Amino acid sequence: MKEVYTLNDLQSFGRKKLKPPIRLGVFGHPVAHSLSPQMQNAALEKSDLEMRYARFEIAPDELQESVELLRGLDFIGVNLTVPHKIAALALVDEADETARQIGAVNTIKKDKGKLRGFNTDGKGFSRAIREEFSVDLRDLRVLVFGAGGAARAIALECAKENCERLVIANRDPQKANQMVESLRGFFAGPRVLGPVPRLQSIAAEEAALRFQIANTDLVVNATPLGLNHGDAAPIPARLLAPHLMVYDTVYASGPTALISGAIEAGARTASGLSMLLHQGALAFEIWFDRAAPIEAMRKGLTA
Ligand code: NAP
To answer: What digits encode the pLDDT tens for the residues 82-101?
Structure first.
């Protein structure tokens, strides 16, 4: 198997007989860093499914053709990663309610000739939080950084699970406002919390953040900050406090600046590896209608 396949490979797959066949994959740009193949191939092996999952480097202007090619190929489905999740929503025949609400698709399944879109990021996040911190979102006051696809999936899941508070901080405050307005209906019910609003957007600025931290249990980074070595944290370390749980959706080879700062502040921390695992397990369940071999997938990720 190659480390990374391309649109050219996808175009010739119908004529080639690979053994075992590649019938699953992830489309991304860039994609070489993706850990999904080692996790999904461990699951396929453990489940005695004679097929492989591969990486596909697909540029944004190649996405439509790549998704269309799936129709003629013997594929089960694919995952979509940065930057394709939002564009993929318009390319599938049907999308489930969660994917439509988020406005993004991270999993496609071929089903009776149709391409069906799903989004497992939010549920994957929820399972990761339960596993890492032994708490449910409904008991938490959550501060999310970011207003892109990942943040939208996470915020929607927090809202659906009726979290105590949800605060969105984003570089572009208008996007944070839009996200909050789209979630307003979930927070209409009575839940007495005192003087702070249950749902609000704030500027990602020190004074506003300092005020929020006292009314927050879980801080989530859903921006790409931390992907590159030397990236700053989305929140200055001096604002972090020991009562916090800090979840960084970024998974890098070492601790991100956010995680290092949180450890120093005495907070509990976790990296995005557990979200990757659980969103992947949920995708496997969509493709095969059977429970995912989660421990084999976890081992595959850390191999
Ligand atoms: P996206 O749609 O491109 O959104 C990125 C968000 O981050 C936007 O709100 C953007 O702010 C903000 N942002 C980007 N660069 C920033 C910077 N330098 N400073 C402050 N804010 C910045 O991306 P996405 O799909 O949401 O993914 C975001 C990250 O989540 C990914 O990089 C990945 O590491 C992580 N993720 C992890 C998992 C997992 O399973 N662990 C799953 C999905 C995503 P503006 O709105 O102001 O542009």
So the answer is: 999 999 999 999 999 999 99
